[in-house]
Design goal:
This protein is α/β, with parallel strands linked by helices and 340 residues long. It is built from ten helices and twelve strands. It binds S-adenosylmethionine (SAM) and iron/sulfur cluster.
Length: 340
């Protein structure tokens, strides 16, 4: 006789037995920066009329919470440039208050953080990710094209003063920030922040060939051994980063290696875009449209059925390749669409 798997909480479980407990929500595809590895300088963004309202995003997030999501990360594009975005944080904080949600967090470029840090904390946000690839003014401009490093540093100051714990994410970029890894580590750890390096991923068309940007983190790690003593850490966030402790700084260093080490077997997440498209994997094209069932009915029945069907299609993993022979990106959309 077949064994019937009981699931009284109606949590979402994919065909590989992975429970979906984490959703990343890209609330806008727009950004006030144009990081050269993320976007082309001349981007065409979605018309505003295609976007879900903040109330609709709240409804979708709340449904995922009801179905077992314990962690929500708000991302983008740059999430803090979306008008009235704090109302979404305020609304979702009710799930923290009720205990249904464990963590509400955000990934930001930091440009608007000085304005919003205190309110984020007041909404129950405790840890945030700030993306920062260099501490050099001119390089920062070169990487982000439009960004201002001093605004980001002020944002980081404000966030720490408000009591937010910060993790810095830095993309390792060949020939761009590779001379700076040691100083980034000393700076972040000196301020009590974790730091994670990320391998560049082949997402979306940009001006430059990916292979010219890509720096395997195995190489970075070997290079760091000249300056630091690294020991394996069993620290786990449920995310893709693998951590080491740095003896000289007493801090923690993460590596996100989608290219050199595939981490899909423990993937517990799905990604929702600002138009209500649900991606079951960052590196695959398959998606489900949740906007139509969301708007078709005030009840959640159609929506839940669509989400359940989508989770059953969650693929085993991505298959990123960056080499001279592979010219096309793994997927056509940019990271700013799906949300990093
Ligand atoms: C798309 S951004 C969205 C949130 C916010 N704008 C920020 O920069 O933190 C999220 C993260 O994705 C990273 N990212 C963007 N494009 C990438 C790519 N092609 N490969 C690897 N990381 C990328 C960024 O560096 C950032 O840390
Ligand atoms: S990485 Fe973030 S800040 Fe940079 S262009 Fe992409 S969305 Fe904007």
């Amino acid at each position: 006789m077949d064994t019937v798997v009981q699931n009284p909480l109606r949590t979402l479980i994919d065909p590989f037995g992975r429970q979906i407990s984490y959703i990343r929500v890209s609330v806008t595809d727009r950004c006030d920066f144009r990081c050269f590895y993320c976007m082309s300088e001349d981007m065409t963004f979605l018309p505003k009329s295609d976007l879900l309202t903040l109330e609709e995003l709240d409804r979708l997030c709340s449904l995922f919470v009801a179905r077992g999501t314990r962690k929500i990360r708000i991302t983008g594009g740059e999430p803090l440039v979306r008008r009235n975005i704090m109302s979404l944080f305020r609304g979702l904080s009710r799930h923290l208050d009720s205990g249904a949600l464990e963590e509400l967090t955000v990934t930001t470029n930091g440009s608007q953080l000085a304005r919003h840090a205190q309110e984020l904390y007041d909404c129950g946000v405790r840890r945030i990710n700030v993306s920062l690839d260099t501490l050099d003014d001119a390089k920062f401009r070169e990487i982000t094209r439009w960004g201002d490093l001093s605004a980001v540093l002020k944002g980081i100051d404000a966030a720490q003063s408000a009591g937010l714990k910060i993790k810095i994410n830095a993309v390792a970029l060949k020939g761009v920030n590779d001379a700076e890894f040691e100083s980034l580590i000393r700076w972040a750890h000196g301020r009590g922040m974790d730091l994670t390096f990320i391998e560049v991923m082949p997402l979306g068309e940009i001006e430059q060939a990916r292979v010219d940007q890509y720096l395997p983190l195995s190489q970075v790690r070997a290079q760091l051994l000249d300056s630091f003593t690294l020991s394996e850490s069993n620290y786990e966030t449920g995310g893709p980063a693998r951590y080491v402790n740095v003896k000289e700084t007493g801090g923690r260093l993460g590596f996100i290696t989608p290219l050199t080490h595939n981490f899909c077997e423990s993937c517990n997440r799905v990604r929702l875009t600002c138009t209500g498209t649900l991606y079951m994997c960052l590196g695959q094209e398959d998606a489900a449209d949740l906007r139509a069932p969301l708007r078709a009915s005030a009840s959640n029945e159609l929506l839940e059925a669509e989400i359940e069907r989508a989770i059953l299609r969650k693929p085993k993993g991505h298959d990123f390749v960056i080499d001279r022979a592979t010219r096309l990106p793994a997927v056509g959309r940019h990271m700013s669409v799906t949300g990093g």
